[in-house]
Write a structure and sequence with these properties.
Elements: E1 14-20, H1 23-33, H2 38-41, H3 43-47, H4 58-71, E2 79-87, E3 96-107, E4 112-120, E5 126-135
Length: 139
């Protein structure tokens, strides 16, 4: 089953995905990417930082945007082409993050979609903000 095609997408349409970031998620991401930054995996080190405890990788958190794009909106068959991101607030182990995408522009010439991308924590704070460009599935 494919996601929504260019013609099926509507300006302002939104979709989201919510996940609680666990210690397992952070350690798995560190292993997969080889990003062993002690701010993420060393509690003693992290306690001495500005954040006072371990934080999740920004790219782990922002990867939830890919989940929304590839699974919900536009959905399966979408090709993720471009993303800009601003990391605004740290994400800690146990934070619940909602990644949301919103269609903000339809680019007719190449049938591409520009989307506002946001990750918000359980307190309603925007932790990641950006925009994505995708090529939705063709039917």
């Amino acid at each position: 089953m494919l996601g929504k095609s260019y013609d099926e997408l509507v300006m302002g349409e939104k979709a989201s995905f919510t996940k609680t970031i666990s210690e397992y998620d952070v350690y798995s991401f560190a292993g997969i990417t080889a990003d062993q930054n002690p701010a993420h995996i060393n509690e003693i080190y992290a306690n001495e930082t500005f954040f006072k405890k371990r934080i999740a990788h920004g790219m782990l958190v922002s990867s939830l945007i890919s989940t929304v794009l590839g699974m919900n909106l536009p959905g399966p068959g979408t090709i993720y082409m471009k993303q800009n991101l601003s990391f605004l607030v740290p994400v800690y182990f146990g934070d619940t993050i909602t990644a949301e995408v919103e269609v903000i522009e339809k680019l007719e010439e190449k049938k591409r979609i520009r989307l506002k991308t946001t990750c918000i924590n359980q307190d309603g704070k925007i932790v990641v903000d950006g925009e994505a460009l995708v090529s939705p599935p063709r039917k």
